[in-house]
């Protein structure tokens, strides 16, 4: 039987969500024009397009190697770009994103 998909305007993204045997911590662009997320823990056909407020947020503090970070870091990033973890323990989940201006220190 083919799965029925249902679009939601008022649902909230559920993170992390499972889709096709993978775990996602942020909106994805899988077979779609725009990024989307599941509104249930296990994707069951209920989804929504992601708005600015839906995208994953940095989690502080987070643990990377033997250090606890309270902000974005460029540690181990080949191009010196600042990044953050999307979970408290990067060493375990290894889920991250580049930091945007919202997370950079103010001068």
Automatic annotation (TrEMBL):
The keyword Ligase does not apply. Disulfide bonds join 58-84, 72-99. GO terms for biological process: phospholipid efflux; positive regulation of sperm capacitation; single fertilization; sperm capacitation. Keywords: Disulfide bond, Fertilization, Repeat, Secreted. One of its GO terms (molecular function) is heparin binding. Residues 8-52, 53-101 form the Fibronectin type-II domain. Its main location: secreted. Pfam families: fn2. GO terms for cellular component: cell surface; extracellular space. It is found in: Secreted. InterPro entries: FN_type2_dom (IPR000562), FN_type2_sf (IPR036943), Kringle-like (IPR013806), SP_Capacitation_Regulator (IPR051666). The keyword Ribosomal protein does not apply. Belongs to the seminal plasma protein family. This is Binder of sperm protein-like protein 1. It comes from Myotis myotis.
């Amino acid at each position: 039987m083919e799965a029925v998909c249902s679009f939601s305007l008022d649902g909230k993204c559920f993170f992390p969500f499972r889709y096709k045997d993978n775990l996602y911590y942020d909106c994805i662009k899988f077979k779609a024009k725009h990024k989307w997320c599941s509104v249930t823990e296990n994707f069951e056909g209920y989804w929504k397009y992601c708005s600015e407020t839906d995208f994953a947020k940095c989690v502080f503090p987070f643990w990377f190697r033997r250090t606890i970070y309270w902000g974005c870091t460029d540690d181990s990033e080949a191009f010196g770009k600042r990044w953050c973890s999307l979970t408290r323990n990067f060493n375990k989940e290894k889920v991250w994103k580049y930091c945007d201006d919202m997370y950079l220190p103010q001068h």
